[in-house]
Amino acid sequence: MHDKRDETVQVLIEEFLTSRATRKPSPHTQAAYRRDLVSVAVLAAELATPPLPLGDLRIGALSPRLMRAAFARFAADRAAASVGRAWSTWNGFFSFLVAEQVVAGNPMPAVGRPRAPLPAPKPLRGEDTPEQLLAAAAQARGRQRDPWPERDVAVLALALCAGLRLSELLALRVGSLGGRPGERRLEVAGKGGRPRVLPVEPDLDALLAGYLDSRVRRFGSRTVRPASPLLVDRQGEALRRGGLQYLVESCYRRAGIGDRVPRGARLHALRHTFATRLAEDGAGAAEIMRLLGHASLASSQTYIEVTSGQQREAARVNRTYRALVGLVRSQAG
């Protein structure tokens, strides 16, 4: 009878990644899973007795003792956040193997996991910087090639007034925006497969409507069907990661605020600005966590339940909305 403990780690890693692919992770996330699994597995093979090439390492050899030694070597020159991410990946890998009855138990609880400090928020610097950014994006300057201010402002507003991540912006569809007037909402495909619904206040709603009208004028009504991507490039194709990053960077340059954008948080600085302003203007932690869709939200909901009305009020106090009022009126005129 075939002993499942004789399966090679390499083969089982591929099976695990195949199972994860059905959840539709981003290519970046899938590559991170593979990198963390292979990096630690290589170290485990080197530390085995006797040392082995990775291709000969059997899953039955991965004892708690060997995994502790491999993670100790892995952690030597890496940040706590990187070690913690790899630990989570391996914990998921062994949980998969237990469910598949390949191994009897998960050794990862016996492997120390570092506590990574929470990263400090990195909002845009300067009291009126978001307003300057929106105002600059709303201007169709002559030196721009094929300017589209309605689209540019819509992208910035979704990040500044809804706190969306890059991946969430790209996943939006025209049909993601729904609800009756005065109760409009945005359905967001959140990180880790956690959907959330965000309130959309009238000014933001009007701005998005203006953007979609401009898109109809450019490309025709067929491009704004419910399943169509909400954000598109100047050719009417779905906006991609690089294109979105370039768009935001160009808006920073046009506004002359490049020196107020924290390093390492170019587009994410808009999301951080959203959260920071909510806190400054009186929103509570529970509302902020709901609106941002943080991973810790699930545990927070056990203790604090926030009604949809409170969420809408939390979004409404965000003073960046005030900058939209003038833009909506100017576009309407």
TrEMBL record:
<feature type="domain" description="Tyr recombinase">
    <location>
        <begin position="119"/>
        <end position="316"/>
    </location>
</feature>
<keyword id="KW-0233">DNA recombination</keyword>
<dbReference type="GO" id="GO:0006310">
    <property type="term" value="P:DNA recombination"/>
</dbReference>
<dbReference type="GO" id="GO:0003677">
    <property type="term" value="F:DNA binding"/>
</dbReference>
<dbReference type="Pfam" id="PF00589">
    <property type="entry name" value="Phage_integrase"/>
</dbReference>
<dbReference type="InterPro" id="IPR013762">
    <property type="entry name" value="Integrase-like_cat_sf"/>
</dbReference>
<dbReference type="InterPro" id="IPR002104">
    <property type="entry name" value="Integrase_catalytic"/>
</dbReference>
<protein>
    <submittedName>
        <fullName>Integrase</fullName>
    </submittedName>
</protein>
<dbReference type="GO" id="GO:0015074">
    <property type="term" value="P:DNA integration"/>
</dbReference>
<dbReference type="InterPro" id="IPR044068">
    <property type="entry name" value="CB"/>
</dbReference>
<dbReference type="InterPro" id="IPR050090">
    <property type="entry name" value="Tyrosine_recombinase_XerCD"/>
</dbReference>
<feature type="domain" description="Core-binding (CB)">
    <location>
        <begin position="7"/>
        <end position="98"/>
    </location>
</feature>
<keyword id="KW-0238">DNA-binding</keyword>
<dbReference type="InterPro" id="IPR010998">
    <property type="entry name" value="Integrase_recombinase_N"/>
</dbReference>
<dbReference type="InterPro" id="IPR011010">
    <property type="entry name" value="DNA_brk_join_enz"/>
</dbReference>
